[in-house]
Specification:
CATH topology: Spore Coat Polysaccharide Biosynthesis Protein SpsA, Chain A
Number of strands: 10
Strand content: 15-25%
Radius of gyration: 15 Å
Number of domains: 1
Distance between the termini: 30 Å
Helix content: 10-25%
Largest sheet: 5 strands, mixed
Strand order of the largest sheet: 5-4-1-6-9
Number of helices: 5
CATH class: Alpha Beta
Structural class: alpha/beta
Order of helices and strands: EEEHEEHEHEEEHHE
């Protein structure tokens, strides 16, 4: 299993490149990088040219430049799946700083032949484990769409978790009250 962090979004709603924006003393994306590097020996970080790499620390992840972020989230997903080279993946989003090692280990422990993800009050969360047998269908996704439709029409295993698995940052206001659970 190989982790992929999707971090090539254009942050249009946020107004500036949100992944470099400070959050609890670190750039927002650093939280995701840290949890991935704590739990895996290697992986991939999919970025756009707009991310200032000088502001983050990456030790174990290979950085892949998405030269066409305007093609949407699906393009980053395809770049990550291609880099995984047939290995099962676990997908993280760069703007979800509250995911911790306990949650990552829970997803990993349940990972077999079905898609696995946490949920909070019925809302699909991250990280998401995708077995390689779903890659063909994932490559058919186009535009600024993630894997939700594929996941919902596939065999999956989900479990209830805390708000941390769905907390993401789209607007500066999303950082107000961050870290509160429930």
């Amino acid at each position: 299993m190989i982790p992929i962090i999707l971090a090539a979004g254009e942050s249009r709603r946020f107004g500036v490149q949100k992944l470099n924006y400070p959050y609890k003393g670190k750039p927002l994306i650093q939280w995701t990088i840290n949890v991935v590097e704590e739990n895996f020996s290697n992986g991939f970080l999919i970025v756009s040219e707009k991310l200032d790499l000088s502001k983050i620390s990456v030790k174990k992840l290979e950085i892949i430049l998405n030269k066409n972020p305007d093609l949407g989230l699906s393009n980053s997903i395809k770049l990550g799946l291609t880099a995984a080279n047939g290995r099962d993946v676990i997908i993280f989003l760069g703007d979800m700083p509250e995911i911790d090692s306990q949650l990552v280990q829970k997803v990993v422990s349940l990972s077999k032949d079905k898609i696995v993800f946490p949920n909070f009050n019925g809302i699909k969360g991250f990280p998401v484990f995708i077995p390689s047998n779903y890659f063909k269908s994932a490559y058919e996704i186009e535009g600024d769409r993630g894997l939700r439709d594929l996941i919902m029409k596939s065999e999956y295993l989900t479990f209830e978790w805390t708000r941390s698995c769905v907390f993401d940052v789209d607007l500066p206001e999303d950082l107000e009250g961050a870290g509160e659970d429930g």
